[in-house]
Specification:
By secondary structure, the chain is α+β, with helices and mostly antiparallel strands. The chain is built from 20 helices and twelve strands. It has a domain of about 140 residues. The strands form three sheets. The chain has a five-stranded mixed beta barrel with strand order 4-5-12-7-6. Helix 6 packs antiparallel against helix 10 and helix 14 packs parallel to helix 17. The longest helix is centred in the middle third of the chain and has 37 residues. The radius of gyration is 25 Å and the shape is globular.
Amino acid sequence: MQYYDPNTLSFILNDVHQLEELLKTERFSAYDRQSIDLLLDAVKDFSDSALHPYVKEMDEKPSYFKDGRVKIHDQFGPIFKKAGEMGLVGAFMDEEDGGMQLPLIVFNALYFITEAANNHVSGYLGLTAGASNLIINFGTDELKQKFVPKMQEMQWGGTMCLTEPQAGSSLSDISSSAKPKGDDTYSIKGQKIFISGSDHQFADNFVHLVLARVEGAPAGTKGVSLFVVPQYLVNDNGSIGDYNHVDIVGEHEKLGQRGYCTNHLAFGDSGESVGYLVGQENKGLSYMFQMMNEARIAVGRVGTGIASAAYYTSLQYAKERPQGRKLKGSGKKDPSQEQTLIINHPDVKRMLLHQKAIMEGSLSVVLQCAWYVDKQMTTSGDESNNYHLLAELLTPIAKTYPSEKGKEAVDTGLQILGGYGFTMDFILQQYLRDIRICSIYEGTTGIQSLDLLGRKVTMMEGAALKLLEGEIETTIKAAMSNKELKSYALTLGEGANQIETCLSHLMKYAMEGNHERYLADATIFMDLFSTIVIGWQWLKMGVAVLDHDESFKQSKLYTLDYFYKYEMSHCKGLQKTICHDSDVTLKMSAEMF
């Protein structure tokens, strides 16, 4: 069963995002096109044999909590061992830190393959990668030496512990405490919920990155510090020491991603939990944002992977399922004719194009975001800062669009299967359950939308937005010279103007100090903004595909045409909603509900 298209992935990596430009830089000079292709093939082989065959079984035999420990599917054992041997955990980290020093765009391409194959797996790897990278960047040499090597080998797991029962997504309300012990360590106490990958039988230790408040710290986010709190203490010789009283209180039983365990943790309840400060006191949230931004791109990538698997599942079904007959010139059906395959019905083609347009556009924007991070690392001065701003602006979009629209795409795939899609016999229902979490993980859609409109488009007096406008204009100019693409280029230009019109309308509220009104329709603005960004990605693909063979070229150009007819056309309605004078969501009081 196909779950992604290697040719499309290669096209987006190499033709759309010019991977070889990155490989010419000093940082990535150890790699060339051939070596990257070998890596992609190796991960595909790994995914074909060890991941994809178990995706349904991991849902049917989910993780569970018993006698204070979590048990996950037995196949995770060989998966983690092989992933450690392949270096997948530290693949994007510097060679001097034990990594492979791959471009981040390649790292994300590799993980996309695994997520399309089996979305229950990559969270364990990715969280461990993110946690170890944060320790590398902000921890002491002692912390690096003590924890990172075994995390990169997947002998030890890594987590991020932010959310608390009483605080939810409001990190300013964190109440977990950290009391100095007088020996550069702290006594950690508190509860953390929704902590993914935090216990299982295939790791000897778990390294938790915990946000907590040191006694006397300022209120709000300015008083949050970051600590490494291992499940077991580690002796000076690297061996496992005493239990550090990180207790597993229970397992959150979930709608989807049931093979990926998510737990409730208690620090310091059954005994003292010792923590090691990362960086400076009260700077913890700024450090954690590195891991959170990596995780947000990863969530968008997971949504893209699930949408890809769902697309190829429904495509196969549409190519095999006969039903109905094609209309004749008279507009009538001939019952004596054989049934036609449902892929020949225009409405089924529309649904497949919907899936394809969303999934491939999502993949391109995720890799675009990673490319900007790579460019930031391989340039200097103002140029590097500009790429940083572009990555910051695109991160909430790379997280949100694949999550929200990917969910829609999977639902459309289920519709193609009709009644069979609603049964447990086919995996579409599982993919719909699995992807549902993506718009909640790592900051909900509402939070990402507030971030985009409230912070990202206004930061440095709109510098990031101006840079993105320049990027879009470059693509428009390239497309205008081709008669096949000119109309799409003009439509994209209109879309960029719609963003400006909406911001001009909203800015008057911000200037008046009415920030609640300014942000009231942030989610609608996200919908508009991200649709136009994906339209830009599709136009980039249109420009890049012109020299390809006719079949591949037409497939991409027809999908581009679909996106502009059916998706970009929504932008006018979104603009009308955003610029409407009604403030009903502010006027409607809680009592009126």
